[in-house]
């Protein structure tokens, strides 16, 4: 073998090995990247979920982007979602944490954002066993009934005074006061009057800040600068809620000194803190309370508001569901949670609302802690993974007339929202599935929507035709209605 053959063979071997290495580390397809900013220009505008859904039509259901310094993988089909959330759930179970939510060290203590570790399992167990288990949910049914009746009474008051009902605000107060009663044995807001500082605004502001495109999330080197002041603004909102929680806890400790003991969740939390102070401290309790209020109010509020908006746009749907309610429950009578299983059309409306208007456009972002192979592609260590629920829910390959609100599509369908059918995953799936799903989807939302429709006829404010109702979305971590729904109620 001569010298040139040896050199040529060595060079060829190196090139071949390099090719193999690159092929084995092949990223999913994606659009052209610009220097420094990568694909950030694709997120310009108010609706990144729509922009990425449109890109997925070009580059496929698994797509890679470079958002500044961050490799981001976007999942836009039910098949790919199942692969990530079920088949390879363990590899994709940790969180990519928005910088805004690192304010007040919230993400270090939150069951929503902690990695899957012993502390996360402990907090999840506390949450499930004391609030979200079926036994606990059943035992609190009377409280939910009381709060829904207060909602009906509030709407009746507005009707008598000729005032429009702001549906989202009314639904929020109902959800908030239910949660505050199981947690603290008291209402936090007056169901009939507005308070000076609206908790709804504080909670929405946190979600809005966390959902804003933040330069620090794309260029971590800017973390200490916080150029958009997003983390600082979030810290202000966190502080308002944590001060409220501290006041409620101090009030309870003062009550205990006078030997007044209440049987609520706060009492359990304080006992856990006392008995297990090395693992669970006040930071964990504050963050857990915040998780409960954000998760427990936002999903219910947005779903009730979107459902009522869609129903008001199509009066024939209102007539159809009111007829079902009158037949099964009785016109004007209170709806019980046990009635929901006998109200299939109402259940179809809730499912269709969650399909067209999922509470979150993207499931909360995942992060891979090591290189992961996914469908012959390599997802590099440290990548952010986004599941575009909005895109899946409007995929024409899965849904006939996906842009039309049509509850009847679920009449003969076995599809459910519980994380087993990946065509419809508004609450996610796998070990990171939203723990509040049984409360929101099966209890609060159908009973609230059903109660509003069984007690009142509804129409839009004067001068607004159903087809002209503003249905624009307001993007954030959650997907709210941009223009709050206002409607006039008339007793049935």
UniProtKB/TrEMBL annotation:
Matching Pfam families: p450 (PF00067)
Organism classification: Eukaryota, Viridiplantae, Streptophyta, Embryophyta, Tracheophyta
Main localization, broad class: membrane
Domain of life of the source: Eukaryota
Cofactor section: heme
Keyword match Heme: yes
Name of the protein this chain belongs to: Geraniol 8-hydroxylase isoform X1
Keywords linked to the UniProt accession: Heme, Iron, Membrane, Metal-binding, Monooxygenase, Oxidoreductase, Transmembrane, Transmembrane helix
Species of the source: Nicotiana tabacum (Common tobacco)
Example of a GO cellular component annotation carried by this entry: membrane
CDD domains: CYP76-like (cd11073)
Cellular localisation: Membrane
């Amino acid at each position: 073998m001569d010298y040139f053959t040896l050199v040529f063979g060595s060079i060829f071997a190196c090139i071949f090995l390099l090719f193999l290495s690159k092929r084995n580390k092949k990223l999913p397809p994606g659009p052209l990247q610009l220097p420094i900013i990568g694909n950030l220009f694709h997120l310009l505008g108010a609706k990144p979920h729509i922009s990425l859904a449109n890109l997925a039509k070009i580059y496929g259901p698994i797509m890679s982007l470079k958002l500044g310094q961050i490799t981001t993988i976007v999942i836009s089909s039910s098949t790919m979602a199942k692969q990530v959330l079920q088949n390879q759930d363990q590899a994709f179970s940790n969180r990519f944490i928005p910088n805004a939510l690192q304010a007040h060290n919230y993400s270090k203590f939150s069951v929503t954002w902690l990695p899957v570790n012993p502390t996360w399992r402990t907090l999840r167990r506390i949450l499930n066993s004391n609030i979200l288990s079926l036994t606990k949910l059943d035992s609190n049914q009377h409280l939910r009934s009381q709060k829904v009746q207060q909602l009906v009474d509030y709407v009746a008051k507005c009707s008598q005074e000729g005032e429009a009902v702001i549906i989202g605000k009314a639904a929020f107060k109902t959800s908030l006061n239910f949660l505050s009663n199981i947690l603290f044995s008291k209402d936090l807001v007056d169901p009939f009057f507005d308070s000076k500082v609206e908790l709804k605004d504080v909670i929405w502001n946190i979600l809005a800040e966390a959902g804003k495109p933040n330069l620090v999330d794309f260029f971590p080197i800017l973390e200490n600068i916080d150029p958009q002041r997003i983390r600082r603004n979030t810290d202000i909102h966190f502080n308002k809620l944590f001060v409220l929680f501290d006041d409620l806890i101090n009030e309870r400790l003062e009550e205990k000194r006078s030997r007044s003991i209440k049987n609520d969740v706060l009492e359990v939390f304080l006992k856990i803190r006392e008995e297990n102070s090395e693992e669970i401290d006040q930071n964990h309790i504050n963050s857990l309370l915040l998780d409960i209020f954000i998760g427990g109010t936002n999903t219910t509020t947005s779903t009730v508001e979107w459902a009522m908006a869609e129903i008001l746009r199509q009066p024939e749907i209102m007539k159809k569901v009111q007829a079902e309610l009158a037949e099964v429950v009785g016109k004007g009578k209170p709806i019980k949670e046990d009635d929901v299983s006998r109200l299939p059309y109402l259940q179809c409306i809730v499912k269709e609302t969650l399909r067209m208007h999922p509470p979150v456009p993207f499931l909360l972002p995942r992060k891979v802690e090591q290189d992961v192979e996914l469908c012959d592609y390599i997802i590099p260590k440290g990548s952010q993974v986004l599941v575009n629920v909005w895109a899946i829910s409007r995929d024409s390959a899965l849904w006939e007339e996906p842009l039309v609100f049509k509850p009847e599509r679920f009449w003969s369908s076995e599809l459910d929202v519980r994380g087993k059918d990946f065509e419809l995953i508004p609450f996610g799936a796998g070990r990171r599935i939203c723990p509040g799903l049984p409360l929101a989807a099966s209890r609060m939302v159908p009973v609230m929507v059903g109660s509003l429709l069984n007690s009142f006829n509804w129409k839009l404010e004067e001068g607004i035709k159903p087809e002209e109702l503003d249905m624009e979305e307001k993007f954030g971590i959650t997907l709210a209605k941009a223009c709050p729904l206002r409607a006039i109620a008339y007793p049935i």
